[in-house]
Here is the input.
Amino acid sequence: MQNDTGERVEATASTGERVSDGVVLFGKYELHKVLGHGAFGKVYLARNVDTGESVAIKTVNKHKVIKNGLTAQIEREISIMRRLHHPHAIQLFEVLATKTKIYFVMEFAEGGELFHKVEKGRFSEDLSRQYFHQLISAVQYCHSIGIFHRDLKLDNLLIDENLKLKVTDFGLSAVKDQVRPDGLLHTICGTPAYVAPEILAKKGYDGEKVDVWSCGVVLFGLTAGYLPFNDESLTVMYRKIYRGQFRFPRWMSPDLRRFISRMLDTNPKTRITIDEILRDPWFVKSYEEVQHSKIQHWKEPDENQSRKSLNAFDLISFSSGLDISGLFGQPGVSDSVERIVSEETAERIMEKVVEVATAERVRVKRNRSGCGGAQLEGQDGHLVIMMGIYRLTDELVVVEMQKRETKDGSGRQFWKEKLRPQLLQLVYKPEAADST
Here is the structure.
């Protein structure tokens, strides 16, 4: 791999893996080292070359996702993370894609996982309470907008450079739309040592209640230095969870024991709620509520703006076209609409379209926005292609071609044999990105 000067540079990541240094994704993010590995890719530390800001970039191998039937899960994770805007939840800045990979560009938490800090020694009750305040603030916010994390654990709690907690990994999260008519969720998921007993019962569960249980396990782990339910035998551990069998260490205060017991209540109907947690005597000490003015829900662009500037969030839902025109799009899914992504200017693309159309005696009627779109018509009026050009990033545009089928097939023939081959020459090919 080469950097911008053509020099081949190698760097050794903290994980011991050698990764290419100086690689810039989409001309915007310079990769540095591997932070970790996931089921479908790696997580990199990267730098925004424009702002100098450090970010974490999670890569997802599209082939593995599709092969394992997890397309909907990845789409849901993106949909959920785009809605999150809270001081104690990892922020998703943008999603980028190539033919083979998806890139989650996220906030970077320099302090790493809370799990590793607990490994070095248990926390005092005051420090545990400080982090637990932040965790509950984030969980309360998620529940208020209909999101259930379902995999809260020390490994998914990060610490930033200001020692503030950040909830991450919403890959197993659910939304209210997934609740069945019985008012419950039914998907079996979570990490064994943190899973609630009602999930093990396989009879349906309340997303808010299982998050509260996991929060109880987290708080126990912070103050004890180990987890309440742990055994080499998974069967034995599940039996302990189902029966609520665990022991408090002697150094825990009576108030904390009572508080954790209410969260680790095996009966979800009597388990403490988030609202009750916020009023608990142990919890309220030194608690400062996050001001709502600091929390902003994801603001959807208005109708006019949404058609002028598209991003990968938009592309995930409707693109089928060429190269990176869709996160999971595959050619041939739709014959009536195709899209390409290009580095060329809108005017250059329009010039190419006019050039091909003129040679084939096809009229080009530009819309009022100039190079923003046009309608292509044949001399007999049968051939109609609607074209739109939309801004994706500062460097990239999306070209959308919507074809109206004709009886004589002239539209399909013109598109496949004349116009499409010319536009394919303008397609953006992020080769460096696909090699990471």
